[in-house]
Amino acid sequence: MSNLIDAGLQADRARLEEIIKRLHELTIRIGHEEMARTVSDLRNRIFEPFMFVIVGEVKAGKSSFVNALLATGEEIAKAAPQPMTDTIQQIIYGEERREVTVNPYLKKIFLPVEILREIAIVDTPGTNTIVEYHQEITEQFIPASDLIVFVFEAKNPYRQSAWDFFKYIHGDWRKKTIFVLQQRDLATEQELAVNREGVAEKARKEGIEAPQVFAVSARDEQAGQADTGFAPLRQYIADNITGGRAPRLKLNNSVLTAQTINEKIADGLLTRRRQYEADAAFRQDIQQTLDEQVAQSNKQVDLMVENLLLTYDGITRDKLAELRGGLSMFGLVKRSIASTFGSTPGAKEWLENLASGLETDLNEKLRARLNENVVDLAETIQQMVKTIDLKLRGSQTILSNDHEIFSSIAERRENVLRDLQDQFNRFVSKTENFTDESLFADRENIAPNLAAGGGIAALGVILMALSTLPVVDVTGGVLTTVGIIFAGFSTRGKRKRIVEGFEEEISTGRTRLATELEEKLKSYIATLRRRIEGNFGRFDEMLEREEKNLLILEGTHREVRQELAVLEEELTP
Hints:
This protein is α/β, with parallel strands linked by helices. It is about 65% helix and about 10% strand. Strands 3-4-2-5-1-6-7-8 form an eight-stranded mixed beta sheet, with helices on both faces.
């Protein structure tokens, strides 16, 4: 039967080792070296004995307690009035006594003591003096411990540093803890009763339902005195840990520790996921804002074109009426007679003057109307850029750069966001980002004006340059056609051709004005939008990478959680 139990235990250990191996791979993928070391250490200790970790403040009597508990009659852990334990001492079973120094802060002591076949004891430095060693304690022994023995001075078990460390042990790692009031020989029975209840009450406030508090005297125990308090403690160990139970208990503790680490990762991943979703929503908001601002700018262009066409239609309508009236039979006869006496231009000269007046009116009035509307368009486009800038400054940070697990990810994100803000500021300040060669008939004509306001401030000047575009001078085609048609106008048929040709050219010019102006402006707005989007390249790469990484990490975490839950259920009696 024992062999079957051992075989089952070995199989369960092997399963747990594989699960913790997955957990270790997860911590490596996360890139958290400290947690990876903790998980690696947990994996290595699965096959070690049940581990007691002795903690407490300097001069609380920890080393004396360890010596008395082992009852070898010799000083295994050094005890002295001054703080002597400046290293962590792991005391484990060995066929002969020997010591191995693992590193400057860790020493292994092998002893042929029977109880060490089932348990190992770790004696640690005081919690209130060698703070620089706490990391060593935390990383190597607290997570992999099976029972924490918290040793206090019997006369004063209330020092804050000790209880702060207890909060870490119990709150962060959920480690089973018993409390020992050492040096009971220095306290009165009344002090012991008050302090035992005081420790129990503080433990209950920290979430331990039935705290175990023992009052012992290591000095009296080693002196062979009766009623030293060690008998109840040894009985507790015999009833709850040794006697064949320790290996299974350790296995259960290892499952719990692995679950604790995995859930720490889960909490971190949840925060990291929230940050990703906030960043993705921020990026989507940028896109939506650009969509809305571009749509608003395009509407402004449509309104501008509509206003220009109204002006164009008014001018050409008047000129067309003047042409029709002047080309009537009565008008031509009257003009012919009047020109004979020199008081009125001849028909040909009159037509040339009409065409010239059309050109002047169109250029002057269209340019004036265009410049009026450009101000509104420039403000709309400026608002688009300013809105994006404000949104960049207001992006939400959820994953802080002091996060327990993902501080490096938070710092990377912070750097990307800061670079994005700096890059966009530089973008806004450079005039060339708002210019477009296709908008200008002659760039040199406007270059001096741009000095008046760089970057986005130059938008008005840039768009004003539209008034120099050939598209505004739509009379070129009209004049050419009119000149050809006007060569012979003596017959009624010719007069009709002149009017129809004039109407056709006016219509063509109208279409060209609307089409070219709309296409150029909307193309300019689209180009500016692409340039703005170009600033988000690195941020978009970060989002894409983060989405893929989160899916992998979350998937591995869920698999480990499920495997640990199944094993925990199977191990539960």
